Prior knowledge:
Elements: H1 14-17, H2 24-84
Amino acid sequence: MTDTGGPHRRPTRAADTGAARVGARATMGDMDAVLPYILALAPTVGVAGIFYVVMKNILEGDRRERLAQAKWEAQQRADKGDERG
Length: 85
């Protein structure tokens, strides 16, 4: 007969439930449960990091280009002013 959990059921010990596990064994068990989620999120985090770096460089390059353009235009205006005078 199988035990149905009736009144004569043996009390559950901490060792049976895994609550007594400590140290690396408990950590590895927890990692086994978490690792698939970490691996599932890793590509998304990687792509987000690449996206951040690319966008940062694009915006920084645009800022430098605008500064160079403004400097060049100021030089051109100054040169035209010298020609008139």
